[in-house]
Amino acid sequence: MTTIQVCELTKSFKGTTVLNQLNFTLTNGVVGLLGRNGAGKTTLMKIIATLLRQSSGLVMIDQAPVTNVRQVRQMIGYLPQNFQIYRNMRVVDALTYLGLLSELEPATLAQRIDRLLIRLNLGKYRQYKIKELSGGLKQRVGIAQALLNEPKILIIDEPTVGLDPEERDNFRRLIGELGDQRIVIFSTHIVEDIARISDQLVILEGGTVAFAGPTATFAADPDELETKYLALIRGGSDEGF
């Protein structure tokens, strides 16, 4: 069981506090990270992924502080919101290149790529160029690169933006499956994207934690989750979403 502990986490940029004394604990499963645009979701994920340094407080992954960058990065896979990959490279070549940059041993890397392409239903696209793929398929390639190091924690930032309804539904289903054996932090401002697949919920509002805990504690079903979420965030106004 993997654990993320966030204790009094604060992050400021040029005198502006973006995250203010966050406290929560996460364990295996899908974690829905909800909040309107600008609530601090991406900043929080980048701190957990060691891409930003907190101003104060602690973030611990299995008792290792995220300031131990090399150790923690071996446990994390990250798919940023604006994932860019080499458009003219073939899928298998792009994954191979990214794996070698991560210092994976070539034979092990080849086996993992083959396994992931099958697992993510990308097998028939291995020789396609990235630019030939749909938005949903590109996101699956992004998931594949994030899983190359077999991470304990998978962090995915707003992955359904720009996808059509069918691709969004397929991608949500995939995220739910990936949470069986690890922590999957799935950031979104769209309640529908996490209502049916999240085991745990963290809601940020104005850089603070409005709720953190089991999804079932917050709401009994997806419809109630959306209603209570909108009521929690500024009295139910959906302005700015």
UniProtKB/TrEMBL annotation:
SMART domains per UniProt: AAA (SM00382)
MF annotations from Gene Ontology: ATP binding
Entry keyword set: ATP-binding, Nucleotide-binding, Transport
UniProt domain ABC transporter: residue ranges: 4-231
Any matching Pfam family: ABC_tran
PROSITE patterns: ABC_TRANSPORTER_2
Chain coiled-coil ranges: none
InterPro entries: AAA+_ATPase (IPR003593), ABC_transporter-like_ATP-bd (IPR003439), P-loop_NTPase (IPR027417)
Family membership noted in the UniProt record: Belongs to the ABC transporter superfamily.
Protein name as annotated: ATP-binding cassette domain-containing protein
Organismal lineage: Bacteria, Bacillati, Bacillota, Bacilli, Lactobacillales
